[in-house]
Amino acid sequence: MSGAILQGVPATTLDTDIWIDLPSRQYMRVLNLCRRMGAQLRANTLVDLSDGSTVNFLYEVHGVRGFRYEYQRAKKVKWLNTEVAVLPLPRIYASKKFVGRPKDLAHLPLLEQTMKLQGRLRGR
Amino acid sequence: MEKKLARVLKKLRRVRGLSEEEKYLFARSLAATPDERWRLHENFLRSHDLYTRSAR
What we know:
Order of helices and strands of chain B: HHH
Largest interface: A-B, 25 and 27 residues
Number of domains of chain B: 1
Radius of gyration of chain A: 15 Å
Distance between the termini of chain B: 32 Å
Distance between the termini of chain A: 25 Å
Order of helices and strands of chain A: HEHEEEHEEHHH
Number of domains of chain A: 1
Structural class of chain B: mainly alpha
Largest sheet of chain B: none
Strand order of the largest sheet of chain A: 1-4-3-2
Radius of gyration of chain B: 14 Å
CATH architecture of chain A: 2-Layer Sandwich
Number of helices of chain A: 6
Helix content of chain B: 55-70%
Oligomer: heterodimer
Shape of chain A: globular
Number of strands of chain A: 6
Number of strands of chain B: 0
Largest sheet of chain A: 4 strands, mixed
Shape of chain B: elongated
CATH class of chain A: Alpha Beta
Strand content of chain A: 15-25%
């Protein structure tokens, strides 16, 4: 949900998901980098950064197309003095709807409402 | 941010199906920059002592 929050969805999340363009068997490359940055490793895809925040690495995202396709269409957002690529809200919506866990479905009305209001603000 | 918030609130005034409080909640988030949005989210977690794993 971090990407959605950065795009204006009034929500909260306990971790930040980062989609990695690597096969999942190469997860150690990511974890080694995290370790060098002083992160605490909690699982193969989960780390706590030195500021206490939690990051979850994803090697595939269900309900959307492949990394390259989505990255080309990602929204660039300035965040914490850097530029990050985030899935646009309709793509986050599609993924959450596809995954369909209760916590994903709970976010759908919030995503829907935000997209609707953004449309109104743009005068659509 | 206050000016932009006022502008966004004005545009959302005619939206149906949302209470005034809900409109304010959305407007505050939509009027903010990504960094401000993240801070709002962090503040919420911190105020509930949920920000760090050690707190959780």
